[in-house]
Design goal:
alpha/beta; Aspartate Aminotransferase, domain 1; seven-stranded mixed beta sheet; about 35% helix; globular
């Protein structure tokens, strides 16, 4: 059950991997004078930065690694608070926790992204940053979020892991705040099995994130550095094979997004004749990735019945993207006084109980999007799925 990029694996990815394997050089660092070193990782960083119109990009082992490196790069102190939405993947919370900081949850709205109206209610003297999550490929209301951040002098780290290629008012997500993160795992817009990226226009944030991702080293594209390290780091380095696949996928990203938008538009138009639901709010309809079609029913009873008839489930019953399903995070947050049990965020609970995610490009039961269409669905298959949905709605 992959994301759209996986459906388009082909000769480009195969040839890129074979090229690296034949070179016999899989490590991200090497000498330009060595013909075996193809510098796929540094090329990916350069090309992704160019694609996002960002000054810097950093390749990592995963979206989670990108979040960890970015949160550490903010230079905050243990106990500082970062506001995050109550609907997101678990890594948004755990990256903050591993950095010694406290995730403070806020409500979502009917875009299924962070509700700006709730952000200011969650700000305390310990609040130092906001982590908007462009959930399910839908950009957050970044104008309002950035306005709040500026007013309260807060940093903004964008979790764009589910939204590679999305834009908000003409700007690529991930480049609007101070630093942004992306995932390349199998469920994402483009993927290399696993992997991640960080983007920023800030020299210091880039240098620090680089050090965190590689044992404290300063940025160096082609060779290993010795000395001059002033921060501690870990190992989140991407290898040449992963980068080779990611580069091939990056070359397909615009085609992927255009195809998804076209297919979702057809599907939405077809099911619009049914009653009892509305589509989720898109903060920038032109910039949304269209990986998911989310419908919000009038009542949770309707949502439960329709989703059951289609062998799917409501979003609140999906996996680790719903705050109260994260028992290990719940246990941790009890110790820092943050509510995390079901009912703590009633607006979020209500929306998710009435929402159903229909797959368009991301077919993922863990997101509640195990039913729907995919990037390769024909017009006939789109029409068939729409008919099933309409019948289910009319039956209740």
């Amino acid at each position: 059950m992959p994301g759209p990029g996986a459906y388009l694996f082909g000769k480009e990815e195969m040839e890129a991997v074979v090229e690296v394997m034949k070179s016999g050089y899989l490590f991200r660092y090497g000498s330009e004078n060595d013909p075996k070193f193809l510098h796929k990782v540094s090329t990916l960083e350069k090309e992704f930065a160019k694609y996002c119109e960002a000054k810097f990009a950093l390749a990592t082992t995963s979206g989670t690694a990108s979040l960890v490196a970015s949160v550490f790069a903010l230079g905050l102190k243990p106990g500082d608070e970062i506001i995050v939405p109550a609907y997101t993947f678990v890594a948004s919370y755990t990256s903050i926790i591993f950095a010694g900081m406290v995730p403070v949850l806020a409500e979502i709205n009917e875009s299924l992204t962070l509700d700006p109206d709730d952000i200011e209610r969650k700000i305390t003297p310990r609040t130092k940053a906001i982590m908007p999550v462009h959930m399910l490929g839908n950009p957050c209301d970044m104008d309002r979020i950035m306005s709040i951040a500026k007013k309260h002098k807060l940093l903004v780290v964008e979790d764009s892991c589910q939204a590679a290629g999305a834009t908000y008012k003409g700007k690529k997500v991930g480049t609007i705040g101070n630093i942004g993160t992306f995932s390349l795992n199998i469920f994402k817009t483009i993927n290399s099995g696993d992997g991640g990226l960080v983007v920023t226009n800030d020299d210091i944030l880039y240098e620090t994130a680089f050090g965190v991702h590689d044992q404290g080293h300063k940025p160096c594209r082609l060779g290993l550095e010795v000395g001059n390290r002033n921060i501690l780091g870990l190992n989140f380095r991407m290898n040449e094979l992963t980068a080779a696949v990611a580069l091939a996928q990056l070359g397909k990203i615009d085609k992927i997004l255009a195809t998804l938008r076209e297919k979702r538009s057809k599907f939405k138009k077809l099911i619009s004749e049914a009653n009892g639901f509305k589509f989720r709010t898109l903060n920038d309809p032109e910039g949304d990735c269209a990986t998911i079609c989310t419908v919000i029913f009038d009542t949770k009873e309707q949502a439960a019945k329709v989703s059951k008839m289609l062998c799917s489930k409501t979003v609140d019953n999906s996996g680790w993207h719903v705050y109260h399903n994260m028992e290990h995070v719940l246990n941790h947050l009890k110790n820092v006084g943050q509510p995390h049990t079901k009912g703590s965020y009633p607006k979020t609970d209500d929306i998710l109980s009435r929402a159903m995610n229909i797959s368009v490009g991301v077919v993922d039961g863990g997101l509640g999007s195990g039913w729907g269409i995919n990037i390769n669905s024909t017009d006939a298959e789109i029409e068939s799925a729409a008919k099933q949905f309409i019948i289910a709605c009319k039956s209740i």
